[in-house]
Amino acid sequence: MKGVEIKPDIHWVGAIDWPVRDFHGYVTPKGTTYNNYLINDEDITLVDTVKYDFAEVSLRNIASIVDPAKIKNIVINHVENDHVSSLGTFMDIVPSAHIYISERGRQVIERFFDISAWDITVVKTGDELKCGKYTLQFIETPMLHWPDSIMTYVREAKLLISQDAFGQHLATSVRFDDDFITCASHSQLDEAVIDYYANILMPFGALIKSKIKAILDMGIPIDMIAPDHGLIWRGAPEHVLDMYMGMANGRADLSIAIIYDTMWKSTEIMTEPLVQGITDEGVDCKVIKLRETPMSFAITDVWKSRAFLVGSPTLNNEVFPSVAQFMTHLRGLRPKDRMVGAFGSYGWGGGAVKWLYGQFEEMKLEAVAGGPEVKYKPSSEEFAQCYEFGREFARQVRDYHKKYE
Ligand code: FEO
Description:
It contains 13 helices and 23 strands. The chain has a 7-stranded mixed sheet with strand order 1-2-7-8-9-10-11. Strands 17, 18, 19, 20, 21, 22 and 23 form a 7-stranded mixed sheet that branches. A 5-stranded mixed sheet has the order 12-13-14-15-16, with no helix packed on it. The chain has 405 residues and is an alpha/beta fold. The radius of gyration is 24 Å and the shape is elongated. The mean pLDDT is 96. Strand 19 and strand 20 form a beta hairpin. The protein binds MU-OXO-diiron (FEO). The site of MU-OXO-diiron has 9 residues, from helix 2.
């Protein structure tokens, strides 16, 4: 590979990780990229580095444009390991480089590297760096999605280098959204955006909303958004901004995800009448068995749906372990604007359904009470009860969805 010019004298110099399928526990069936950008101006400036394993790839891409030893400045937008773990390698090559980073970012890199000899400038919103014909303007975006996060706006290029925000885990041979959708599809790209948001950014909806608004209020024209993963938004930067604002405002499909696990199929059997009841009310529905589905896929399906039901057997007076794991993960993601309910089965004594409703209450999600919990195997009466609960749940979800239309 070699660098790809994305604006005059601004180049993508990142790396494509085609085979990665486990990204710190997040399943990435289509791989990912680690994007960084070289501004080949009077003062040559690198924005972000890459994951450690890919330092040589990025350095080769830089060398296809300019001698890496000539880099004058390195901007660090975000200090998670997939972007900063090769910083030491870069600094070995250009020990005189000036580093521009947020204060929180500086505090993190000093835990990972010996920075005593490094020339570091801490930046905050409004600070600028003149590289020559290009001016970099820094924008703090704390908790979007780490405390250290900043974005770098290249004023004369109308280019927003947005670190993780607006990214997607997609390994592709093309670098731009409009090139991708000629060889794949817009829906595939949208799906990747939603998947990324659901698994990485879901807890930060309110911050995302206010930060996007603040950036738009700055009145800076943006005609390209270059994230640190996946495709660069050249054809439709407003499309991804709209998607983010929509998701931050609670946008979801009028559909219901049924997430469950099962021991001896009793809980699984209950999904049949639930699905029937839901679809008989004209609401779309999807069933996800946790032991057969990567966690991040289940999270994405929850996020895309206006509501979800969680089903679990009771095992030794506790919720089933895979369901507990799912709920722990979900709690951390702090979902909002979703209606919920629970169902399940037990042998000697129940409890999983009560536990699930307790979790929903703590998560401040609006729950439809009365989810069925059956002993051993659902009887025909309990089948009917599940069906009726499915119908009632779908009716309430349909009403609940109206406030988002
Ligand atoms: Fe792609 Fe938050 O790192």
